[in-house]
Fold this protein.
Amino acid sequence: MRADFQVLHLRSSAGLYGAEYVILGMVPELNRIGIRSRLLSMDNQHLDTQPLFARAQAMGVPAERVPCNGRFDLTTLRSLRDTLRRERNTILHVHDYKSAFHAWLARGFGSTPIVATSHGHFPTTTNLRLYNRLELALMKRFEHVCVVSKEMLPVLARAGIDEKKTQLIENGIDTQRFNAQTPPLARSDFGIANDAVVFGSAMRLTDQKNPLGLIDAFALVSERLPNATLVIAGDGPMREAVEARARERSVADRVHLIGARNDLERFYTMLDVFVLPSHYEGLPLALLEAMACERATVATAVGQVPAVLEGTSAAVVQPNDTQAFASAMYDAVHQPRRDDLRARVVDRYSVANMTQQYASAYYRIWNEHGRARS
């Protein structure tokens, strides 16, 4: 039975990261279970291409571009208003401060219910702190607010958002795409010996992810494992700093920065040990993806990570403890493949499980706020 409403996911994106893949996984799953859904991808004026929209097209995910040429764009506002007037039985689901702001203005005094998902509040600059406060203020006016980590719920409470309309919905991944049987990337393509011990991570090269700390820990491990190699999939503003740190620690010849990848399912199966050294997180998809591929895992105790890994064979280390992280990396090499990690993801963190929770929220919100006014 199909729902009598649709869900439009609005996202302003700077690249392909965790939140983007949450949306790309959820939209087709919602359509599969009878809730019409599509992505509205706001253009990013700083990018020559629009990677979120392009990836949606490549994956066959229903999507359309929304023009946007700045922080506030009347063209964006008109486009969204036209969509809401034309498609009345709609829930608008926003995924960042910019989409939240434009959605709120586009709704105006209309009746379209708005759902927001906070994928993580980590303001590190004056502008980001301002945008964070704006997003929290807007959330008070929305019908429902979801977070991906329980540590984020107190942030909403302190901002005065009614706890009755907040909900924890943890991220989910495609457990068919990410599995241990996926053929790995060829190590030789990156100049890595077949008998190397390969540590790896998929991350944006920013301070949040702590790539410099990872280089320091790897340098300690490499003193004990002469055949150790570190591979990082991803890019970002700290790339040059990471390369410099690798040279300083005399491991540059063993560290491979392979850039952003669209074949991470093959990247993870190339690894012996997956590492997540972050300073702070919500619920990182890379962790769940590596777990689904049964990789031995070492992660810092940040955000939702301890709850995800509790009772499993993964090693959880306090953030900023380089020595402990290095020791855990070394110990992880001598453990068998971790099928218990995949079992945890299949049981609790599949895209189907995540989408079903959102679907239940949508039905409730539509019955309470949408149906009577449609």
Summary: The longest helix spans residues 351-370. The chain has a mean pLDDT of 93.
